[in-house]
Amino acid sequence: MKAKTIEKLIIIVIVLIFILGGIFAYLYFATDVLKTNAQLFFKYLGQMVDVQDGFIDNQLTEYSKKKYTGKYEDSGKFYMDVNISGMDSETLQTLNDFNIEYSGKVDNTTRKNEQDISLNYSSDVNFPFKYKYADETLGLQTDYVSSKYVGIENRNLKQFIEKFGVTDTTEFPDTIDFFSNFTNQETITYTNEEREQITNTYKSILEGKLGQKEFTKTKENNTESYSVEMTNQELKDLVLNVLETLKNDQILMPKMEEATKEIIENMNVNSTEEITIQNIIQGIIDDINASEIDEGTNIITVSQIDKKLSSIAIKNDQTELKITKTNTQGTLTYGIEINMLDVETQESMRYFLTASYQGLEQLASVNETYQYGLVGTMNGQEQKMVYNLNCTDTFNDGITIADYAEDEIQKLNEYDAEQIVTLITSIVERIGQVNTMQMEEIGFSEYGNPLLFASPLTSLSMLIYNQASDVVNESSMSEVEMEAFNQRFMQYEGEQSGTTVRALLQAVISNNVGETDENRKIEVSGDITLTKEDTKVPTEDVNTGSMYNVQMQYNDEGIISQIIITEQ
Fold first, then answer.
1. E strand or H helix that includes residue 551
2. Does the pLDDT value for residue 183 go beyond 90?
3. CA of 96: how far to CAs of 84, 263, 506, in Å?
4. CA–CA gap between residue 3 and residue 318 (Å, rounded)
5. DSSP readout, 424-458?
6. Sign of the Cα pseudo-torsion (202, 205, 211, 215, in order)
7. Among 223, 324, 408, 466, which is least packed by CB within 10 angstroms?
């Protein structure tokens, strides 16, 4: 089987394990002493959704309920550990010195949240700002711009968007929920009759595919593991059989639809065709059927420690996917790990995500630690991108968060479109000036801002580009910078209102005035013109009641050099 097909099947199998784990629990959990390795395999697989010994810990569930319905003080820190081949040591040091710290209060009972946030570029260079949500209004404030918050009421958002000439607002929400809808509803359960019917349905599928298989048992220290081997074709047939059955399951499908209701509704907002669980499953079936099969085998392993499920893994000669859970000395830790090996070059890459929790027993103060990263080799060079977030939530029923004072916030809802564009433009310009000064101070001026690299996707894209192009640091950094530069203007591409076009022109002027590199200055042509030297928006040429088409033109380096604006 092609590598990507096998990886897709492996992920699908893991999903199916979550869905069907309760069935295996019903079949095999009744007795603690099982005679065969096959029974032990299914017993501990069934603990994935078992109420008592489930993979999702009861204490974690209780913590989530308390966190998303109560009051607490919070604090945290985000930081990176990055080592990308081709990047100079000074730049790497700057990235690894960068961190984000926050502290504040959350009151879910009154839907309020206030945070002090600081972007720390070095020990003495930082950009602090405040975030506040109160009286259904979101506000941001930094002393670098103003002593007041600038915010927007979380009401009548469709009406707010219409100020900018947007006539079709059907895809926009009228409000955005910034607080969790977590409730105390019980986990989806099954009646005995439902369990029996589900059991009979899927038991026959599993017995048909695995009944004649040999299950093996291994033991290492205090961990016992039970494994079964399947060929690529057998794995494909099993997955297709289960998916076809699941698609028409009158018991499981309604429960899956209820569990994913909000997700599906959000997906349908921006979809031209109705999305349902059934057609998602059918799409997966179609993809698998279209996949080519090569020879190969996969080993599925279930492991337990002290009679409780500790990990599930699926492995072949190129890929291993492993999900783990440990709970020792008051620390609950979950992990997802994907190990990939290029058989020809023997280069490997390890992707991982871990989440740890301390303090779940008392639920007074809980420490959360998250780590995401990839470590491995590309083109024979070691690569590392690890992102860390440490948080502490301390519950306190006595905390209060005040509403905005009468003259504490400028609400954008109270202004017309032109006033909003002028205000936002001036804020962006001021933040840009502060950023330029701070980046020069830390010696990072060439690269924009370390915050650009705080996204794993940004760093991963740069890493892939760097390796695939076999270029040195300067070239790869220019690629990232170019994307950031272009993105400032690409958001205006397409059909736009006159008010939006005025904002675009102001953005072009701000860019040209602050740029010393002629290659990065932009001209505007068409029905509206702007030279590189112009310093004032030609408002008399822009009709706020008209619609315009905006097109971008690029120079040989791939940088936007000209914008063509034509009136519709």
1. strand 547-554
2. no
3. 11, 35, 35
4. 7
5. HHHHHHHHHHHHHHHHHHHT-GGGS-GGGGGSHHH
6. negative
7. 223
Q: Which residue has the higher pLDDT, 563 or 458?
A: 563
Q: Quote the pLDDT of residue 544.
A: 72
| pLDDT tens digit sequence for 194-222 | 877 876 787 778 777 777 788 899 999 88
Neighbouring-strand partners of residue 548: 496, 567
Confidence of residue 543 (pLDDT cuts 50, 70, 90): confident
Percentage of the chain exceeding pLDDT 70: 81
Phi-psi map region of 330: left, alpha, beta (phi>0 left; psi -120 to 50 alpha):
left
pLDDT tens per residue, range 467-498: 444 433 333 335 656 776 787 788 788 888 88
Give the number of other CB atoms < 10 A from CB of residue 467.
18
Q: pLDDT exceeding 90 applies to what percent of the chain?
A: 32
Q: In b/e form, how buried is each residue of 409-421, taking b as 16+ CB within 10 angstroms?
A: bbebbeeebbebb
Helix (H/G/I), strand (E/B), else coil: 61: helix
Q: d(Cα 294, Cα 395) in Å, to the nearest integer? A: 55
What does the alpha-carbon distance between residue 121 and residue 452 come to, in Å, rounded to a whole number?
A: 12
Confidence check: pLDDT of 451 > 50: yes
Contact predicate 481/472, CB 8 Å: no
Give CA–CA dist 150/166, Å, rounded: 23
Asked whether 542 and 531 are in contact (CB, 8 A), the reply is no
Closest CA to 469 of 378, 560, 343, 350: 378
Close Cβ partners of 234 (under 8 Å, ≥ 6 residues apart): 209
- What element of type H or E holds 257? helix 252-259
489 near 540, Cβ under 8 Å? Answer: no
In angstroms, the CA 508 to CA 523 distance is 8
Q: Give strand pairing partners of 104.
A: 74, 115
